[in-house]
Amino acid sequence: MPATTTTDLATLRAAVLAEHYQKTMELVIHHWERRSRQFVTLVAVLAGAALVAFARPLIAPALKEVFLKYVPLKDANLTRLDALTPVAGDLILAFLVVTVFYLTANLVNRTSIITNYYVYLQRIEPELRKALEISPSQVVFSREGDFYRAVGAYNSRLIGRSYKAILGLLLLFFFAARLFFDFPQDLPPLQIPNRELALEWVAKCFLFAIDVVIFVATARLFARFVSPLTPAMPEVEAS
Asked: What's the predicted TM-score (pTM) here?
């Protein structure tokens, strides 16, 4: 078996680096496509959920009508149904609020992955250029580094800020509507030993409490989305 020469190893290393670079770029494109779909889904859910916020008084009667259409009840059970449909409507709204948080978390996570991949590509380009003995005057394998900073950085920042502004306004409108319409009204004096009054407090306050918790969590996620922080990495010399 012939001995492997230094030239063969250098050629093999350059080929492996180029293939790794290409596969990493394909992963970035994959995550870009997934994030674009997630963004559209989140905007659609926010728009629908915001409209539902204004139609909250109509949810319980609509649920009652649909239920009675498929499950006929006796008059004795109608009173219980009247008591349960508002709770069911509140659960639907709570599910929408949690869904918004879930979609926002996925969007932020996907953005973080894309950002990390781009930083990684910028880091390995000098190594790849050195392995392929590319001169500084050539632009090949500088797409995510020097070439991007010279040509595409401004447009990318402009588009990114537009996306963030649109999403931020929709989230603000959605949670403002939710907190306004879900704020508990006509709460009775709380008497802990009184079980019925305690349950009435829970029924009137639980949706507002969920709104507050999800709003705080979503606001933190959105702040992370607006200004993604890339971990500091020590400068390494390309070898």
From this structure: 0.76
Torsion of CA 200, 48, 41, 90, to 10 degrees: 10
Whole-angstrom CA distances from 188 to 83, 171, 180, 184, 207 are 18, 32, 19, 11, 17
Strands (E), the chain: none
Residue of 231, 6, 13 lying closest to 127 (CA atoms): 13
| CATH node for 7-226 | 1.20.1050
pLDDT in tens, 183-230: 877 665 655 555 555 556 666 677 888 889 999 999 988 888 887 555
CB count within 10 Å of CB 125 equals 23
Domain boundaries along the sequence of the chain: 7-226
Could you give the 3-state DSSP secondary structure of residue 43? helix
